[in-house]
Design brief:
The complex is a heterodimer of chains A (106) and B (161).
Chain A (H helix, E strand, L loop, with lengths): L1 H11 L1 H9 L5 E2 H5 L6 H13 L3 E6 L2 E6 L4 H31 L1
Antiparallel strand pairs in A: 1-3, 2-3
Helix pairs in contact in A: 1-4, 1-5, 2-4
Chain B lengths: L9 E7 L3 H8 L18 E6 L6 E6 L4 E11 L3 E6 L13 E10 L2 E9 L2 H9 L10 H18 L1
Antiparallel strand pairs in B: 1-7, 2-3, 3-4, 4-5, 5-6, 6-7
Classes of the chains: A alpha+beta (106), B alpha+beta (161).
Chain lengths: 106, 161
């Protein structure tokens, strides 16, 4: 659950989501990611750090630059998503079971 | 160098205030009454998912325009105690006939109600698929779609707090 919470917390911030979306078309250096975003470069680095901790992105060094990319396996994210999905689906299921049994009793 | 990641199965338990057979029926043949409408595969709006009530049956979604999109199959049909569904959706939320992950759901009478235990396993197979889709994962319908799901889930989660 901690993992799932981290993933969703990481993506609830709109700026962080914008940073993440920038990586959709392939690996990017921090400077490229920051370009056009209404936040400072250190702020972008901070967002990338949070995304990395959530297992959503990966980074590597290329000379003096740090290149970020979406975690190509998407595995941690997928499991976290399923964890969350079944939580909300089962809550909806339980609500429906109980609604239907109340109606039968009437 | 690649490391084999084997994620733990997703396990969930929930107690419902209803008899075992009723809980089983709502989960399976009644899936259209509770499945989140936001979780769909086809481009058209979701009418409802359908679970065919037999081993070897289909699990698919029916869209409002009449389109049917496969979700998976029914591997084990043992009412009112157990059902094993085959989930064949990739991380891109598209159907892949070669992807086989299992969702086992057990219904156990407990007190005045029923305990429902769900286990979604073999998730590493999704990882293999996700890896194989490395080239296409950034395309339309890939991360944007998944991201939308994340965003929706996050909203639900925030509201729930």
């Amino acid at each position: 659950m901690a993992n799932a919470n981290r993933v969703f917390a990481a993506l609830t911030d709109p700026t962080r989501r914008a940073v993440f979306e920038r990586l959709r078309h392939g690996p990017r250096a921090v400077g490229e990611i920051a370009r056009g975003l209404p936040v400072t470069r250190p702020a972008v680095s901070q967002h990338l750090k949070v995304l990395k901790e959530a297992g959503l992105v990966d980074d590597r060094s290329e000379g003096t630059r740090r290149i970020y990319q979406i975690d190509p396996r998407g595995l941690g994210a997928m499991r976290a998503w399923l964890d969350q999905f079944w939580d909300s689906a089962l809550s909806a299921f339980a609500a429906e079971v109980e609604r239907a049994s109340k109606e039968e009793k009437k | 160098m690649s490391t084999q990641i084997r994620p733990a199965p997703v396990r969930k338990s929930i107690f419902v205030n209803a008899p075992q057979d009723h809980a089983f029926d709502v989960f399976t043949t009644g899936i259209g009454r509770w499945w989140p409408k936001t979780h769909k595969i086809g481009p058209a709006d979701l009418d409802r998912p359908i679970i065919e009530p037999r081993s070897g049956g289909r699990w698919y979604e029916l869209d409002v325009d009449g389109t049917e999109c496969e979700i998976g199959k029914i591997a084990v049909w043992e009412p009112p105690a157990r059902v094993v569904l085959i989930w064949q959706l990739t991380p891109e939320f598209t159907y892949d006939p070669e992807l086989i992950t299992e969702v086992e759901v057990l219904f156990t009478p407990e007190g005045d109600g029923t305990r429902v235990d769900l286990e979604h396993r073999d998730l590493e197979r999704m990882g293999e698929k996700a890896e194989a889709m490395r080239e296409t994962i950034s395309g339309p319908g890939g991360w944007p779609a998944l991201l939308q799901l994340y965003a929706d889930e996050a909203k639900i989660q925030t509201k729930g707090k």
